[in-house]
């Protein structure tokens, strides 16, 4: 599911504020830079509002945000829909007992961790990040939540790189994005 096909006038404004930086952090990568979106209060608010409108009546109790850029978009969504926010962090950042999931990136490998006890069995979870590329990060995030017994209702990203076919790694779990970049 994507809002790209919608005729919501806010989508064009959001897309226009995402800066594309060629060859960062490696040759051949077209880096989608959301820091320029954050510089525009209307485009940033429109981004949050679109997610809040979609999720406010879906009975979601936990928004899980992926380090680092999911920490920008996840908390305002969580506050607006009345859900708790759970950070999914890179290794050795969380101080208490964690569960971990390794994954492969477009440009390397990494691991996500979640605090044990942050999520209760049967909670309804939304996973938030800025971008889906290969889908490895979202897949690891969903695995963490499901290992804790939560139901992942949907994943939500600002940007999808559809050419990398990340959706195919989500095992049929719905993904909602605002803009696509080819
Ligand atoms: O779909 P995938 O191929 O898994 O890639 C998507 C992930 O890559 C980026 O994060 P990155 O790992 O660069 O970390 P950062 O946000 O800490 O810079 C992005 O913010 C996503 O989390
Ligand atoms: N092209 C890209 N731009 C920004 N973040 C990314 N994460 C993985 N691929 C990316």
Describe this structure in words.
The protein is an alpha/beta fold. The strands form three sheets. Strands 4-3-7-8-9 form a five-stranded parallel sheet, with helices on both faces. It has a two-stranded antiparallel sheet with strand order 1-2. A two-stranded antiparallel ribbon has the order 5-6. Strand 5 and strand 6 form a beta hairpin. The longest helix is centred in the first third of the chain and has 15 residues. It is globular, with a radius of gyration of 15 Å. It starts with 8 loop residues before the first helix and ends with a strand. The model has no long low-confidence stretch (mean pLDDT 96). The protein binds 1-O-pyrophosphono-5-O-phosphono-alpha-D-ribofuranose and adenine. The site of 1-O-pyrophosphono-5-O-phosphono-alpha-D-ribofuranose has 17 residues, from strand 7 and helix 5. Keywords: Glycosyltransferase, Transferase. This is Adenine phosphoribosyltransferase 3.
What's the short story on this structure?
The chain has 182 residues and is α/β, with parallel strands linked by helices.
Topology:
Blueprint: H1 9-16, E1 19-22, E2 30-33, H2 35-38, H3 41-55, E3 62-66, H4 70-81, E4 84-88, E5 98-105, E6 108-115, E7 124-132, H5 136-147, E8 151-160, E9 175-180
Parallel strand pairs: 3-4, 3-7, 7-8, 8-9
Antiparallel strand pairs: 1-2, 5-6
Helix pairs in contact: 1-3, 3-4
The protein binds 1-O-pyrophosphono-5-O-phosphono-alpha-D-ribofuranose and adenine.
């Amino acid at each position: 599911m994507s809002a790209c096909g919608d005729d919501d006038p806010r989508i064009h404004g959001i897309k226009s504020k995402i800066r594309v930086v060629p060859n960062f952090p490696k040759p051949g990568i077209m880096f989608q830079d959301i820091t320029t979106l954050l510089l525009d209060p209307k485009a940033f608010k429109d981004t949050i509002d679109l997610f809040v409108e979609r999720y406010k009546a879906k009975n979601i109790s936990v928004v899980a945000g992926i380090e680092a850029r999911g920490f920008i978009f996840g908390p305002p969504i969580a506050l607006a829909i009345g859900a708790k926010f759970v950070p999914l962090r890179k290794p050795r950042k969380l101080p208490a007992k964690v569960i971990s999931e390794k994954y492969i990136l477009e440009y390397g490998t990494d691991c996500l961790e979640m605090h044990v006890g942050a999520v209760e069995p049967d909670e309804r979870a939304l996973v938030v990040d800025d971008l889906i590329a290969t889908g490895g990060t979202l897949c690891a995030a969903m695995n963490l939540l499901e290992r804790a017994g939560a139901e992942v209702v949907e994943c939500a990203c600002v940007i999808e790189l559809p050419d990398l076919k990340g959706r195919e790694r989500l095992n049929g779990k719905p993904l909602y994005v605002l803009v696509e970049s080819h």
